[in-house]
Amino acid sequence: GRLLRGTAGLRPCTPLGVLGLLERYQVALEGARAVVVGRSDLVGKPVTLLLLQRNATVTLCHSRTRDLAGVCSQADVLVVATGQPHMIGPDHVKPGAAVIDVGITRGEHGLEGDVDFAAVQDRAGLLTPVPGGVGPMTIAMLLRNTLLATCFQARHA
Fold this sequence. Notes:
This protein is of the alpha/beta class. The chain is built from six helices and seven strands. It has helices spanning 2-5, 13-24, 44-53, 68-72, 117-120, 134-155, and strands spanning 33-37, 57-61, 77-80, 98-101, 105-107, 110-112, 126-127. It has a five-stranded parallel sheet. A two-stranded antiparallel sheet has the order 5-6. Strand 1, helix 3 and strand 2 (57-61) form a beta-alpha-beta unit. Helix 2 (13-24) packs across helix 3 (44-53) and helix 2 (13-24) crosses helix 6 (134-155). The longest helix is centred in the last third of the chain and has 22 residues, at 134-155. The chain is globular and about 55 Å long. It starts with a helix and ends with a helix.
């Protein structure tokens, strides 16, 4: 509820990690077209709200979105969290876009993301790897939330 209202409070770790990566690499969000692919309660919806709070214009898509490639290819920022390996290819990515791959699936070649990394890496301006991209940021944000929760509890004790 606090996230939806934009009031102070803890935030989900993975979406917060996505925003942390975008901030670290100085991706301009204000006025940017952002597309989130995946409507989960844990990643898709919260990251949509966080992007909106930073004044991005956000489109929330899913596996049944018509012309998904067409919608995604307009995005300055593309966040993908579907759990479907290699769902996103070069036709989904605007040249120079920031692409954040949140998905992680164990496949026959090890851990794989939702974005076809090899096919997209020359097209994207920023592309997170799987593993090693959002995962460590999720852990960092969990530690951040633990510290914040301790501070909130100390103030209200």
